[in-house]
Amino acid sequence: MGKRIVIIQGHPDPAGGHLCHALAEAYEAGAREAGHAVETVTVATLGWPLLTTKAAFEGPAPPEVEQVQAVIAAANHLAIVFPLWLGGMPAVLKGFLEQAFRPGFLLLDRGGRWGGRRRLKGVTARIVVTMGMPALAYRWWFGAHGVRTLASGILGFAGIGPVRTTYLGMVEAAGAAKRARWLGDARRLGAAGA
Questions:
Q1: Contact in structure between 131 and 167 (CB atoms under 8 Å)
Q2: Which of 20, 31, 120, 124 registers the highest number of CB atoms within 10 A of its CB?
Q3: How crowded is residue 71: how many other Cβ atoms within 10 Å of its Cβ?
Q4: Which residues contact 188 (CB under 8 A, 6 or more apart)?
């Protein structure tokens, strides 16, 4: 039986046409061909406002956020695709996660604090990050802090694990053959639900 996969397209350009969009499409195609159920959330098209107060963050989610939360809650696996901006995820993706991963959604038995059982425990994730610099430099020289924050500080805290990462560097300089290889890899990851 296939997995229930949610692809979170974190590229901030709603028009599409970027490598991140092609990677998410390849991942989705591979997953569908393998029999997985797939839904894609394109964060740049949602138009959700940023949360600016603790009360708003801890308060009830608007209906449009609840709809996406229900999609995420039904998933076995998340695939998050985004370009590296200023060492981390674009603001539109961070804003999306703040809206969707509210305490009232994440915690099943919230006792006034951040303790309790996590709704997304047992869900796995794949983070695919594109960047202009060499991936090795980002991982080893800069410590991949922005992606590690997402993997452990947000997804791990939500109970999601394991969280695996794919770093694609020097994307502007990549030729057609390398891009085709990346798309093939994304398709295979989607087929595997990994």
A1: yes
A2: 31
A3: 16
A4: 30
What's the CA gap between 185 and 189, in Å, rounded? Answer: 6
**pLDDT at 65 (0 to 100):** 96
Domain 4-192 grouped into CATH 3.40.50.360: yes
Distance from chain centroid for Cα 181: 21
Residue 164's Cβ-count burial label (10 Å; 0-12, 13-18, 19+) is: middle
Tokens of 94: 């961070």
What is the per-residue pLDDT across 130-164, written as a single tens digit (0 to 9) for each?
999 999 999 988 888 999 999 999 999 899 999 99
Tell me what pLDDT residue 113 has: 61
Q: Where are the alpha helices (DSSP H) in 47-114?
A: 54-58, 63-73, 91-100, 103-106
Q: Is the pLDDT of residue 112 over 90?
A: no
